[in-house]
Amino acid sequence: MPRVSQEQARLNRQRVVEVAAALFRERGLHGVGVADIMAAAGLTHGGFYGQFANKEALAAEAFDTARTGSKERLGGLDDLLANYLSLGHVQTPGKGCPLAALANDVAREPIGSPVRARFTDGVRDLAAALAGLTPRAAKERHTQQTLATLATLVGAVVLARAVDDEALAKALLEAATASAAQ
After folding, report:
1. How far apart are CA 134 and CA 13, in angstroms?
2. Of 46, 48, 159, 179, which has fewest CB within 10 angstroms of its CB?
3. Which residues in 138-174 are b (16+ Cβ under 10 Å) and which e?
4. C-alpha to C-alpha distances, 138 to 126, 127, 130, 131, 143, nearest whole angstrom
5. Whole-prediction pTM
6. Dihedral, CA of residue 150, residue 155, residue 157 and residue 161, to nearest 10
7. Phi, psi (deg, nearest 5) at residue 53
């Protein structure tokens, strides 16, 4: 079997990370295995350990990729609220915010794990982005308001994904939008 070029190896790795980022958000960190990820990327399972130390290393890198994609979709506060708190975001976790998709899974990871560290960085980054989009108040009050807004956004999406009533899901998203827009 011929060896792949360095460029092809780089492209394969990138594809695996992108596929993993989507699958982890759709199925959870423990709901998808290495074989599933590699198959979805169109590659054999055997090539995984030549690219990644383990599944946790892939998960950390995939989380960074998902965060980058989420940051690129930030606009003004109104755009952020409209996109983040939409049924489209709720119904497509594989393309959405990794914080909302993976909060429950990451909470079960050990303190100090690479995925948990990346998640913490993601919370800080999104809080900073929100702070930049909201009116200034006294620094401590502004920080509290920013963190409350972040918790409202993520919480609304998590709850809207969990209920089996679309009207209730919409009501959760609308309530969060109204609260965050104030």
Report:
1. 38
2. 46
3. eeeeeeebbeebbebbbebbbbbbeeeeeeebeebbe
4. 20, 16, 15, 12, 9
5. 0.83
6. 160
7. -65, -40
In single-letter form, the type of residue at position 118 comes to R
Task: Tell me the helices (H) and strands (E) count for the chain, helix number first.
Answer: 10, 0
Buried/exposed code over 12-28 (b: 16+ C-beta within 10 A; e: otherwise): bbeebbebbbbbbbebb
Token code pair at residue 130:
């929100």
- What are the backbone dihedrals phi and psi of residue 30, each rounded to the nearest 5 degrees, phi first? -105, 5
Residues 151, 152, 154, 158: what is their CA dihedral angle, to the nearest 10 degrees?
120
Each residue of 35-80: pLDDT tens digit? 999 999 999 888 898 899 999 999 999 999 998 876 656 678 888 8
* Contacts of 163 by beta carbon, 8 Å cutoff, 6+ apart: 169, 172
